[in-house]
Design a protein that fits this description.
218 residues, 10 helices, 6% strand, mainly alpha
């Protein structure tokens, strides 16, 4: 995918996620997401902040004492509860814009909307397809970065092979699955491990469906 393809996919994913949020019931807004300690509402709030400017980001980092995870958590929670329809409206308003948070490439907002879309949809039992080509771009980017996921250390000795794209990551015992499910694994989610297969499966964590701390997908 070239940069234009990445942004077109971001726009499409944001628009469809906004539609999903517009359809949620009051109970679904309060459902725990795949991000530990975050409700669906909190993940949606985080996604509305995808275009945070340099100055607000700097202030948030200082307030969080330099902790990336704390900054992500605090900025979303500080936003406070919004009217239910406001989350989708704010995310939809970003469609067509190429603004992004400081110090990130266009792949980070792509990863954000792909992964956090699943953080919302999976606990609700909502079907939200993950486009394989886009998920492969995001998974390769996350694999190449030591921060924030530490994926090459965490999944050392495994080779991830997608069944619906040309994605191959790592070396070792094979783990196979859709590109979307491998992207969730790479970014620290274990909620769909039961859908994976291969000799390396026994080495994967399966006890938890959520991470202990909510991390931005970038």
């Amino acid at each position: 995918m070239d940069t234009d393809d990445v942004w077109r996919t971001i726009d499409s994913e944001r628009a469809s996620l906004a539609d999903l949020l517009d359809d949620l019931s009051p109970a679904e807004w309060e459902t725990p997401s795949l991000c530990g300690a975050w409700r669906v509402r909190d993940v949606a709030a985080h996604l509305t902040l995808a275009q945070m400017g340099p100055w607000p980001a700097t202030v948030a980092a200082i307030r969080a004492g330099g902790s990336f995870d704390r900054m992500i958590r605090d900025t979303a929670l500080r936003l406070g509860p919004l009217p239910d329809r406001e989350y989708g409206r704010r995310i939809r308003a970003m469609v067509g814009s190429r603004r992004r948070a400081p110090f990130v490439s266009p792949v980070e907002p792509l990863t954000d909307v792909l992964v956090h879309g699943q953080d919302i949809a999976l606990p609700l039992g909502r079907t939200r397809p993950v486009p394989p080509a886009a998920a492969a771009v995001s998974a390769r980017r996350a694999w190449a970065m030591s921060f924030p996921f530490g994926v090459r250390r965490r999944l050392a000795g495994l080779q991830l092979r997608a069944t619906d794209s040309d994605l191959v990551l790592g070396e070792g015992a094979p783990v196979q699955g859709t590109t979307g499910d491998l992207l969730l694994l790479v970014t620290g989610r274990t909620a769909t491990v039961h859908r994976l297969s291969g000799e390396g499966l026994q080495r994967l964590p399966t006890a938890q469906g959520r991470r202990e701390e909510p991390r931005r997908a970038t």
